[in-house]
Design brief:
mainly alpha, about 75% helix, about 0% strand, globular
Length: about 270
Amino acid sequence: MTVLAERNAASPLLVGVARLWLAAILLLLAAAWAARPFALAQGDRWRCLAMGACMAAYQAAYFTAVTLAGIAVVALVAICSAPLVIAALAPWLLGERPAPRVRVALVLGVLGTALLVASPSGPLDPSARLVGGVLLAFAAGLAYALYVLAAKATLRRSAPLPATAATFTIGALLLTPALVWTDAPVSQFACGWPWLLYLGGVATAGAYAIYTVGLRRVPASVAGATTLLEPLTATILGVALFGERLGAAGGAGALLLVTALGLLLTDRG
């Protein structure tokens, strides 16, 4: 996204639509080659519809929030709120109760993310735009949390690949009308198609296919907590590829995130 914005002035909303469509096409092709293509349980079809709506809502809310409140604040609110919502709702919706080690890892992960993401930021201006951006970021976090909870319930009976393919197809269809608010979407796509292809094929289709396979085997709260490593990965890439600097607070945050991951990997509960 950084490269697309700097070199091609790509709209974040255009990127959201493009990555969903590219992921949907690739996942549909992969599901067509599977042994039992599109084998979704009857009761899971409405969940796939809900998951697609959540994915479209996440894209729209997150990217709109960035334009109002900035990347750091929005990333902090959206990324940290999602695993907390998952942990809070999983006992009621899935019958899962996080083990004590997972709860500690979640707390450390949220604190580490806060230090990592918010440390470079300057003082906040409590304007209406900021408040609106924060609310939309919470909406994005809630949409992602509901997606994970619905996906966990779906994967009890349906295969990961067909469910993910259906989800992204629905999400792409629902988000496409948002291109009305994007200037020259065709030319933007034409200029940035190699990066968009990577985002859609690797960072979306590949990543979510692997994520749903893992989600089938671990509690939703654990899967939600591991997503807190996303800002750590982004920070490492930012330092390595874009010359960004990691201050003392960011270093402490990275250490807390690594500790949280260690707790999750050694969990036996």
